[in-house]
Design a protein that fits this description.
Layout (H helix, E strand, L loop, with lengths): L14 H16 L11 E4 L5 E4 L4 E9 L2 E12 L2 E9 L6 H16 L4 E4 L14 E8 L5 E11 L2 E10 L5 H11 L11
Antiparallel strand pairs: 1-2, 3-4, 4-5, 5-9, 6-7, 7-8, 8-9
Helix pairs in contact: 1-2
Length: about 200
């Protein structure tokens, strides 16, 4: 198996397990020094009609996510570039009324899996063509990878209608630079609805 290849296998996870699987995927990519190309931005479609700009060619993964008594498919695109791991996840809820609860739970579980004592809330970017909910958040967290060293994470959580979207950038702690932060801003601000144009 190539060092940059992500192992694929159909799998059903709890919501907490799905967040843990996402973090494991990101951490695994961040540790692969052979897979750190320079930024190469591309405009990609997400499930639910949204689009996003990623700075590297992603692996596309799907996992069954048990939620509200039924199984929904979580679609993930994840890649590694410039010493950071980048991911965009989307999944459809059975009912749009569940989206605020789902966003709160996603934020809580990300912090819990990182062992982050607190999250710093940052201003949400303006997302083109995407009407978001009051529970949409952008967060910065400092935490630990399982059994390893410290990491820094920036994440965006939002939803439209029945679709939930989660963007995450993870890097070893202390590696932020003006260049890398500009790339994070570009990535998190690029999420948009189908009517939006690239950032």
């Amino acid at each position: 198996m190539h060092a940059c290849q992500v192992w694929r296998r159909p799998l059903t996870l709890s919501f907490a397990g799905c967040i843990g699987w996402l973090l494991s995927s990101l951490i695994g990519l961040a540790l692969l020094s052979a897979c750190t190309p320079s930024l190469n931005w591309r405009d990609l479609a997400l499930a639910g009609g949204a689009r996003v700009m990623l700075p590297c060619k992603p692996e596309r993964l799907e996992r069954a996510l048990p939620l509200a008594g039924r199984s929904v498919m979580a679609s993930l695109q994840v890649c590694d570039a410039d010493g950071s791991s980048w991911s965009a996840m989307a999944y459809e809820l059975p009912d749009a009324a569940q989206r605020d609860e789902a966003l709160r739970e996603a934020r809580r579980l990300l912090a819990a899996n990182l062992g982050a004592p607190a999250a710093e809330e940052l201003p949400m970017p303006r997302l083109q063509g995407l009407a978001t909910t009051s529970e949409a958040r952008r967060l910065r967290l400092q935490g630990q990878r399982p059994g390893g060293g410290p990491v820094q994470v920036e994440a965006l959580f939002t939803a439209q209608d029945r679709w939930v979207f989660q963007l995450v950038v993870m890097a070893p702690a202390g590696t932020a630079s003006p260049r890398s932060q500009a790339a994070v801003e570009e990535f998190l601000g690029s999420l948009r609805g189908s009517a939006g144009s690239p950032s």
